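Supplementary Note 2. Why include the ligand at all?

Several targets in our set were suspected to adopt different conformations when bound, so apo predictions alone were not considered sufficient. For every target with a known small-molecule partner we therefore ran a joint prediction. The input for 6-O-phosphono-alpha-D-fructofuranose is given below.
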Amino acid sequence: MKKKVITLDEFIIRRQADFSYASGELSALLRDLGFAAKIINREVNKAGLVDILGTTENENVHGETVKKLDIFANDQFMDSFRSSKHCAAVASEELEDIVVFDDDRSKNAKYVVAIDPLDGSSNIDVNVSVGTIFSIYRRITENGPCTIDDFLQKGSEQVAAGYIIYGSSTMLVYTTGHGVNGFTLDPSIGEFCLSHPNITTPDDGEIYSINHGYRWNFSDGVKKYIDHCINSDRSRPKPYSMRYIGSMVADIHRNLIKGGIFMYPTSNDSPNGKLRILYESNPMAFIVEQAGGKAITGLYRILNYKPESLHQRCPVFMGSKNMVEKLRECLEIDYAEMSEDQLAQIKSSQGV
Ligand code: P6P
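The joint prediction is reproduced in token form.
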């Protein structure tokens, strides 16, 4: 008997019952995200054919050259959130400050969204998978327009998080704290259809993902873990493989399904790590933990950290729980030699 196709919209409405307080706003916001993702998917898929590839003359807040598709994606999501009326404000990787919606309905909306509209965009011109990452919080300010405080919440306060991967197929993967579900876009009907119900990541894996180009600069603990992977006991059924795409969504999605660990440590170029807490580390950590994995900044859980600024970065180690545990053991040599003050500094930089 043909299995019934469950679309994203239908799934979201069915799952609304998970929230006794749900008034449908979060469901509507998630559906709006899915719609915007379809529009961006259309442009990403034909990026090579229209003048949307390449770079603009602009740089974003991080001094990174902005790809034309970055701008298109950012504008698309901003329009979608503004018209949804269920989002009070947005923090975007592409914008220095938050955008507060002040129309009558939006300004009383319950939710705020942090988003990386098109992560990994440096890969666009060479046809490598890129992604969108989003994180949804309940606003904490009660009256008047939203402020940055609505965004500087611990990752454990997220009500939903997800990503869209524009790859060999386009998938939307999200969690609302009740497991992780994946939906594949069926272009023939223009719908995201449930394809990966209740994703759980293996406790172990053979894939480790890191940019070896910075190896000279990694801490002794990170080097110790890499050596563990490279010199792994050949009696293992399968020694480790290094897989690194350079697109966080693609690397973590692969590791989530197959098992593995993704690492972006600190380095001279990135003394606090490269990945942004609000719209990269936190949403991906929420998903990885909901899938049974672990996500740490080094010694501490990513979701415990309360960010102090909108675009703040942190070191990232996340994936299969036994691999993250092994890494954490290796990292202890980085801290063993530290003075109490140095350790206190690390703790405060990692939000403990
Ligand atoms: P590197 C893409 O620019 C990104 O923000 C993430 O998607 C990716 O994991 C990382 O940077 C890659 O950085 O320094 O290895 O090129």
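The chain has two domains: 8-196, 207-349. Residues 119-120, 122, 211, 246-248, 274 surround 6-O-phosphono-alpha-D-fructofuranose (CB under 6 Å). Comparable summaries for the other entries are listed in the accompanying table.
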